[in-house]
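Design a sequence for this backbone.
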């Protein structure tokens, strides 16, 4: 089982760059990049809320459950 981060797809749909999102929500570009590439083990709800608010999306648009 795995949770796959689809942030890159949502960013492309919104025509927004990663550094623009990072600046908008007040998180470092490195931390956001780690999230985008799936290198993190957890995400704060406040961060997820800020991402969803800025990108006008739902958490399910960013996170996807994939069975092995």
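Sequence:
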């Amino acid at each position: 089982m795995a949770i796959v981060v689809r942030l890159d797809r949502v960013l492309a749909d919104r025509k927004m760059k990663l550094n623009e999102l990072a600046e908008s929500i007040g998180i470092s570009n490195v931390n956001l990049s780690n999230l985008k590439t799936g290198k993190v083990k957890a995400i704060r709800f406040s961060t997820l809320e800020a991402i969803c608010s800025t990108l006008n999306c739902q958490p399910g648009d960013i996170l996807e459950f994939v069975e092995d």
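The chain has five helices and two strands.
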